[in-house]
Write a structure and sequence with these properties.
- This protein is of the alpha/beta class.
- It folds into two domains: 201 residues, P-loop containing nucleotide triphosphate hydrolases (Rossmann fold), CATH 3.40.50; 89 residues, Hypothetical Protein Yjia, Chain: A,domain 2, CATH 3.30.1220.10.
- Strand 14 and strand 15 form a beta hairpin.
């Protein structure tokens, strides 16, 4: 029996990492990014958000309305009460971001978002840990905390790699490999990471996949073929093509869900993100939403196919050359 979560639950991303790693810079990139989402932002310290004055269009108590439609709240007494309040707003958020304090342990925060009372309303989407490439080995007395922040994260963003030599970056890689059996790592300058990797939303349409990965070829029924090695820039003018590549899988063949989660776990560490729909053998009348962000895997039953022709349609984002046709076929079409 395959157990599904709720595909309509509001996804939550936690930003963690030691002091000065770049969490606020990353948060601001998300706030001003071209994602079109109504985002609620929770922070440990309201004053820690460095939002440019020209973005703020109104302030009332602990609520800031930003030009891009984001809502920011200050966490004060009880996180659960704050989350419930946010979810009850007239304009319900489509996404929740939490910037944790640089000295906080993300495990206790994550437990809050997996509370049973939130089962059908929110889902913990990912925990992103920022690591300062220049200062990762500084403050050795805080190394245990840094390791815990990394251990509980789904993806590590090694930030500020432009401030150190490649030998230092490799030293960080070796250090992580010696301590963690399995982790996902993305290198970044000034916390500049594609939004496709950072945000995972289940309610996306098939045409949005086309927008992210242009389809230059015609696909007839039953082709079951793959498109691959497409790279793309972003509307904000930053071109990530040199560091990231995308691969699309399309097939009208029903997929067995048994073994799928374990098969996904075998993807290499350089595969950062997978999202899309699966046409399943077990529940052929409904779309199955698959979300993979770093180590986190979410498989949920969605709405019926209706007038749409059932098909498996997925996009994988990873380092250049990290995803092959054979790999996606083996994982998603023959997972058992």
């Amino acid at each position: 029996m395959i157990e599904f979560g709720s595909a309509t639950a509001v996804p939550v991303t936690i930003l963690t990492g030691f002091l000065g790693a770049g969490k606020t810079t990353l948060l601001n990139r998300i706030l001003t990014g071209n994602h079109g989402l109504r985002v609620a932002v929770l922070v440990n310290d309201f004053g820690s958000i460095n939002v440019d004055a020209d973005l703020v269009v109104g302030v009332e108590d602990d609520v800031m309305s930003l030009a891009n439609g984001c809502v920011c709240c200050s966490i004060r007494d009880d996180l659960i009460e704050t989350v419930e309040e946010v979810l009850q707003r007239p304009e319900r958020p489509e996404y929740i971001l939490l910037e944790a304090s640089g000295v906080s342990d993300p495990s206790s925060i994550a437990m809050t978002f997996t509370d049973q009372r939130f089962r059908d309303t929110i889902r913990l989407d990912s925990i992103m840990c920022l690591v300062d490439a220049e200062q990762v080995f500084a403050a050795p007395e805080q190394m245990e905390l840094k390791l815990r922040q990394i251990a509980f994260s789904d993806m590590v963003i090694l930030n500020k790699v432009d401030l150190v030599e490649r030998e230092t970056v490799q030293k960080v890689h070796d250090w992580l490999k010696s301590r963690f059996r399995r982790y996902r790592l993305v290198e970044a300058v000034d916390a500049d990471v594609p939004l496709d990797i950072l945000l995972s939303v289940g309610r996306f349409a098939a045409e949005q996949l086309d927008a992210e990965v242009p389809d230059h070829h015609e696909h007839g029924p039953g082709c079951g073929c793959l498109e691959h090695d497409h790279t793309h820039g972003h509307a904000d003018g930053h071109d990530h093509a040199a560091h990231f590549s995308t691969t699309m899988l399309r097939s009208d063949r029903p997929v067995p869900l048994a073994g799928l989660r374990e098969a996904i776990k075998r993807l290499p560490g350089e595969v950062y993100r997978v999202k899309g729909f699966v046409y399943s053998e077990e529940d052929p009348d409904h779309r199955i939403v698959v979300q993979v962000v770093g180590k986190r895997i979410d498989i949920a039953s969605d709405e019926p196919w209706g007038e749409r022709a059932p098909e498996t349609r997925l996009v994988a984002i990873g380092a250049p050359g990290a995803v092959s046709e054979d790999m996606l076929e083996a994982v998603f079409l023959e997972p058992a």
